[in-house]
């Protein structure tokens, strides 16, 4: 999934991003609400992890504007305020979930995954196609019962191909979902990842190239 983390404490923001990247999510990070709104207007994020007390534009206003835009992005609001009234107020702004600081990173990651499932049509617990079985929760892939060790990017790309259910996925769509905003679209990152993925999945080949369009698992 593509996730935007908005947190003005640099160490905490970096820790959240690292934890989510370990789950094969593409993560962008910013520390203020103004930049957050700019990025939300450009990129299609599945989940927004939003600290409530941030500079430039307050987290409450970021949430209000996002909800008013009709965006499908799900919002997990973070705050140091633990009172029930604060939680109710945050949810009333349109946030989908609420987590108070300090929190366990494992819980945050689980909530992000749950919200991401709500931002798109529900996936089955295990994605299956052409002898492949990909388990997002366990982060495991099997081909015809054989375990296939994949890198985080390979796993993310394969998940998007399986979610397409036989349809062709463009390189641009894969960049959008599996890489953060710092990737250079001209580096050939997608092509190289597909090449490595094919090697690890083995023969006969499963990932087809549709010339001029993208990739698919028929």
UniProtKB/TrEMBL annotation:
Q: Which CDD domains match?
A: trans_reg_C (cd00383)
Location of 4-aspartylphosphate modifications: 51
* Protein name (record): Response regulator transcription factor
* Source species of the chain: Kribbella hippodromi
Q: Which InterPro entries match?
A: CheY-like_superfamily (IPR011006), OmpR/PhoB-type_DNA-bd (IPR001867), Sig_transdc_resp-reg_receiver (IPR001789), WalR-like (IPR039420), WH-like_DNA-bd_sf (IPR036388)
What Gene3D superfamilies does the entry give?
3.40.50.2300, 6.10.250.690, Winged helix-like DNA-binding domain superfamily/Winged helix DNA-binding domain
Domain OmpR/PhoB-type: start-end pairs? 124-218
Q: Pfam families of this UniProt entry?
A: Response_reg, Trans_reg_C
State the UniProt keywords alphabetically: DNA-binding, Phosphoprotein
Q: Which residues form the Response regulatory domain?
A: 2-116
Look up the DNA-binding region in the UniProt entry and give its residue ranges. 124-218
